[in-house]
Every structure is written in C-alpha cells, then in structure tokens.
TrEMBL record, chain A:
InterPro entries: AAA+_ATPase, ABC_SmlMolc_Importer, ABC_transporter-like_ATP-bd, ABC_transporter-like_CS, Mo/tungstate-bd_C_term_dom, P-loop_NTPase, Transp-assoc_OB_typ2. Gene3D superfamilies: 2.40.50.100, P-loop containing nucleotide triphosphate hydrolases. Keywords: ATP-binding, Nucleotide-binding, Transport. This is Putative spermidine/putrescine transport system ATP-binding protein/spermidine/putrescine transport system ATP-binding protein. It comes from the Bacteria. The lineage of its organism: Bacteria, Pseudomonadati, Pseudomonadota, Alphaproteobacteria, Rhodobacterales. GO terms for molecular function: ABC-type transporter activity; ATP binding; ATP hydrolysis activity. GO terms for cellular component: ATP-binding cassette (ABC) transporter complex.
Automatic annotation (TrEMBL), chain B:
Belongs to the binding-protein-dependent transport system permease family. CysTW subfamily. It is found in: Cell membrane. The lineage of its organism: Bacteria, Pseudomonadati, Pseudomonadota, Alphaproteobacteria, Rhodobacterales. This is Putative spermidine/putrescine transport system permease protein. InterPro entries: Bact_Polyamine_Transport, MetI-like, MetI-like_sf.
C-alpha cells in the first residue's frame, strides 16, 4: 500500500542541540484530512515545514507517493503550502497571483487561462481578478491563496494555520469551505492549528503534539473520548483526572484503580495510574446501574439559567467539578449549597491512562 | 501652553539650521552670476551669465583660461556608472547571503563595512603604494575604480540589508511551494519587491563615486576625474567660472534625484494601480 505521505521517525535538531521535533511517525492515505494540533512551540509548524521542504530534516525520512523526498527541494515536491499571512505576491493582481505557478511552468496561455478562470470561479473571485491582492479583505485574500495553491494541482495541500488571521465569523465560513473543498477535490490536506475546534471539526485524524513529540494520533471523536496521555486529557475537552494506584483488570476491557475517592473502574488494563473523566460524564444523582463509579462531594455553587442548571461540586481534595443538569429536576431544585452530593459516572465513559 | 513657546522657537531654530546647511550653496549660486570684471566675492558688480558662457567656451578669449573639465566630467560619469553597477550587484548579492546566518557572518559583515569606515586618504595612499610595489599602473578606470567599489559597496549593502530585513520570506516560500525554481522566484518575486531598495542603492553608489576625492587623489594616475581637476584649478586662482560649474553639477545631481523620485513613484503607483494580465 503506497501512502500519499509517510513520515518515518522524522526529527529535527537545531545545530545548538535544541530538539524541535523527534520521532514523528505518520501514514496519510490519499484524500485524508489530517490536522496537527498543539500549543504554540510544540513543533507542529516545524513538521509541516519539513514536509514542505522549507526546513532541513535531521532524522528520519519523508516519503510522498512512495518516493523518498527527504532531501528534495520544496519546488520539486508535490506539495503546495498555504500560509497564515496569505503570502500573496504584492506586485501582482489577483489573476496574476493565481496564474503565477502555471505561468512559470510555461503552460500555454489558452490552457492556463481556462484553468485560472475555473478556479477563480470556484472561489468566487472573478470580480476581483484584476485588482491588487492587498486591497482585499482577509477572507478574500485567503481564498486567493487557496486558489493559487490549488491551481497547480498539488497532491498534498499543506495549510499552516490558514484561519489564524481571520475573525471568528470568517473563520467559520472559510472552515466550512475548506471541508467541502477537500471532499470535492479528494486532495490530501495537512492542516496545522492550535485551535481545538478547527482540528476536531475539520479533520479525519488529529495528531496532537507537545514539546516536539507526538502525543496521540486519533480520529477526532476517539481523541475526545479516549485520550491516551495526560497531556491530551488536559488539552482536549474538559476532563477531570483522578490519580490512583493500579488494581488490575476487571474484565471486558475494563480495569480498576484505587483513588482517594475509592475504587474507579474505567476502560483500560488496570495497570494505569490515572482515570480521566470527561465533564459531561458526571451525573448528579446515581443511576444505580451496576458497576457505576460514585464520588462524594458537596455542592459549592448553583446557578439556574433558564432550563439549564450550572452546578459545581467540591470534592474532598477541594477540586471542583462543573456539571450541567436540567433545571427542572426537582432533586436539583431541592439541593442547597453545602449539601452532600453523590456523583455517578458510567465506567464506559472513563478512560484509564498511564501517567 | 508649552507648545506656544516651544513651537516657534523650534521653527526658528530649524530655519536657521537649514539656512546654514544650504548657505554655501546659495552663496555659490549668487556669485556665479558675477560680471566679467568681478572677482569670486561680493559685491556683485553687475548681474550676468558671462561665466556660464565662459565655461561652455562661448566667449572670446579672455585672460582667464577655460575650466579644463570636459574630459574629466566624462571620466567621472563613466566611473560612477561602473561603480554603481558593480556595487549594486555586489550589495544585493551579499545582502541576500546575509539573510541566513552563516559561519563567519559576523566578521564578514564588519569587513564589508570597513570599506566605508577607513579614512579615504589612507586607503588611497595604501593602494598607490601597493600598485607601485606590484607594478600595476594607476588609472581612474583601474585602481580608482576598485577603491570606489570598496567605498560605495558597503552603502549599497546596508541599504539592501535594511530592505531584506523587512522582507516577508513566506512570499518566496509560497513561490517555491508552487514549483517555481529559486532562480525564477528571485527574478519574478523577490526582485520586483526589493526594486525600490535597488534604486536607492544605485543612487547612493553613483553620487558617492561621482564626487569622491581622497581615494581618487592618489590612485587616478595621469587622467583626472572631475573633483580632482576642479581642485587643480584652485591652486592657480579662483574665478567665478568654478561657481558656475558648481551650480551646473548641483543641477545634475538634482536631476538624478528627480529621476530617482519619478522612478520610485512610477514603480510604487504601478504596483498599486489597476492592471490587467500580462503575458508571461
């Protein structure tokens, strides 16, 4: 099976010994949408630039369509890159910007014009075609950049925080366009972002990075439901983590750990030391289902906003767990501040991980 | 409150400053219109353009010999042109190299800058001694030309360094990622964007070389450049024809500046104006 893109323990160490990225392994299928997600400085942009060929790769290999491109210069790779600051050519009109890649390759004018017209039409840019790019809005400029990058028909489109410079509204619009575009064209997209919503909303798979190391590679839903490392548990969604000591397997893929709050059962081997509980898994009253995990606490805050009740329950280690419940429930209405509360959690929602 | 006093004071100070700055030039321009029998000083006996005619050889023979500037003017312009081309090309290329920190870039930077820091007389003298020792004839197009490049190249280099400092590298990366070769990227993307800087570097190189004196003094050999031949006439006696010549060269420099300004304006407005597609 030939992958569109394959990274084989790719790493980058700067001459001064600083490690930017280490042991990055990834296989990307044709037409897949992969997001690199992580806080700034985690190495996600460096990895993207190594794929594009702008950064030297000091360890490992990069394969594209089965070809080793580790030491191939950027202009000879089947990639096209989209930048956060658009990087449009300021001395050219919109049309010239888009046509540039084809023009330099010496494509005949008629063929070039057809392609450029088609892509300008696709991005709704014909009416700006003869304007200077720097006179247009951020959203339009990013569309120009996308048109320019796609008209040369790359196998892989690399996007370096392409929505980062747009306001929230535009970001949502372009985000939708990107998703549709990618499905339509069937091109592999590698998308770098520090925004969780973009990564989870757009991609088929998310690569979470921290300090130059890949923490987890999973589809968005799995990433959200089953974090594999403490970093991911902390970075994705809103989880509460309980520390404990391993208490062995409980069968059916479940394990147990002993914590300050008693025995917690969750998905795992039972040799882990952390239990990750997503915020939405907490129930305010026990469901009385067999094997349900129960944690005691006291109500420390209650706010009823319309139909939704925002509660905070203080645990014995003085941590607070935020819970949303229906405000209409009589048992919720009956709760007073300081009252003891038993939180119930379905073990299937709990993930056990190693510290 | 404060500005009511401060502003007029500063305005007057600035005016006086500018007057001092341009005073010599103004005096020179006024005296160039002295009459035939007037000397190179005030008062103006009678306003005339006699010395301009004298300069261009349009007067009948007078007791004052014509200023020997014809050939030296051409030499200076040719020399300045050669210097401009070489210094600007070197300046652009080395500034491009300095965009990436390389081993020894620190010392290399200071070695380049040294060319404009060291006293001209010393370099000129050193060059004269060196050429004598190794048996190279001194000439304005040889030894002087080398020193003019050594002198003006740092200026062109610094101008281009400042331009590249503000240059957005991602624009070049965008071109590369479209499959455009580095050479084409430079020609079609980088160069058009840095062109205003190149113009400035050229202007610097030309004007600095055109009126260079101390480095040329020891290295020009027999054929003199313009500043040298003007200096030569001082040793005899000064007549207002020198002032007339000064006014004309100043006008020449202004013309250069105007051409520079127009080119800059044309370039930047061309960049901003509506423009249809060009055939590649």
């Amino acid at each position: 099976m030939v992958h569109d893109l394959e990274l084989i323990s790719v790493g980058k160490t700067y001459p001064d010994g600083t490690v930017a990225v280490s042991d990055f392994d990834l296989k990307v299928e044709k037409g897949e949408f992969v997001a690199f997600l992580g806080p700034s400085g985690c190495g996600k942009s460096t990895t993207l630039r190594m794929i594009a060929g702008f950064e030297d790769i000091t360890n490992g290999e990069v394969m594209m369509m089965g070809r080793n491109v580790t030491h191939v210069p950027p202009e000879k790779r089947p990639t096209s890159m989209i930048f956060q600051n658009y990087a449009l050519f300021p001395h050219m009109s919109v049309r010239e910007n888009v046509a540039f890649g084809l023009d330099v390759k010496g494509m005949p004018k008629a063929e070039r014009d057809t392609k450029v017209d088609r892509i300008l039409d696709m991005f709704d840019l014909e009416q700006f075609a003869d304007r200077k790019a720097d006179k247009l809005s951020g959203g339009q400029r990013q569309r120009i950049a996308l048109a320019r990058g796609l008209v040369v028909e790359p196998e892989i489109l690399l996007l370096d925080e392409p929505l980062g410079a747009l306001d929230a509204n535009l970001r949502r619009i372009i985000q939708n366009e990107l998703k549709l575009l990618q499905r339509e064209l069937g091109i592999t997209f590698i998308f770098v972002t520090h925004a969780q919503s973009e990564a989870l909303g757009l991609s088929d798979r998310v690569v979470v990075m921290s300090n130059g190391v890949v923490e987890q590679i999973s589809p968005p839903r799995e990433l959200y439901r089953r974090p594999k490392t403490p970093f991911v548990a902390d970075f994705i969604g809103s989880n509460t983590v309980f520390e404990g000591s391993p208490k062995g397997a409980a069968g059916n893929g479940f394990g147990r750990i002993e914590t300050l709050f008693g025995l917690i059962e969750g998905v795992g081997q039972g040799n882990e030391t952390l239990a990750v509980v997503p915020a939405e898994a907490f129930r305010i009253t026990p469901l009385d289902t067999p094997g349900e995990v129960r944690i005691e606490g006291t109500l420390s805050e209650r706010q009823l906003v319309g139909a939704v009740g925002h509660l905070k329950v203080r645990l014995s280690d003085s941590r607070e767990v935020a819970i949303e419940v229906s405000a209409d429930r009589p048992d919720v209405r009956a709760l007073t501040l300081g009252a003891p509360v038993t939180l119930g959690i379905d073990p299937a929602a709990i993930t056990l991980i190693h510290a | 409150m404060e500005s009511r006093v401060l502003r007029p004071v500063l305005a007057i100070y600035s005016s006086i400053f500018l007057l001092f700055l341009y005073g010599p030039m103004i005096v020179l321009a006024i005296l160039s219109f002295q009459s035939v029998d007037g000397g190179p000083q005030f008062p103006i006996r009678e306003w005339s353009t006699y010395w301009y005619q004298h300069l261009l050889g349009l007067t009948e023979t007078s007791r004052v010999s014509q200023l020997p500037v014809g050939d030296s003017l051409i030499r200076s312009i040719v020399l300045a042109f050669m210097t401009t081309v070489v210094s600007t090309v070197l300046g652009v290329m080395s500034a491009e190299a300095f965009r990436i920190k390389f081993k020894g870039s620190g010392p290399a930077f200071y070695l380049i800058i040294l060319g404009m820091m060291v006293p001209g007389v010393l370099v000129g003298l050193g060059m004269a001694l060196l050429s004598n020792t190794i048996g190279i004839g001194r000439a304005w197009w040889g030894t002087s030309f080398v020193l003019h490049v050594v002198y003006t190249y740092p200026f062109a280099f610094l101008v281009m360094l400042a331009i590249f400092n503000r240059f957005d590298r991602t624009v070049e990366e965008a071109a590369l990622s479209l499959g455009v070769s580095p050479a084409q990227t430079f020609r079609r993307v980088t160069f058009p964007i840095i062109f205003p800087g190149v113009l400035s570097a050229m202007l610097f190189s030309f004007t600095l070389s055109y009126d260079e004196f101390s480095r040329t003094l020891f290295t020009a050999g027999r054929d003199l450049t313009l500043p040298l031949s003007i200096y030569g006439t001082f040793s005899v006696e000064i007549y207002p024809n020198i002032f007339a010549f000064g006014v004309l060269t100043t006008l020449f420099s202004f013309t250069l500046l105007v051409v520079y300004g127009l080119l800059m304006k044309r370039f930047t407005s061309k960049a901003a104006r509506f423009k249809g597609q060009e055939d590649g």
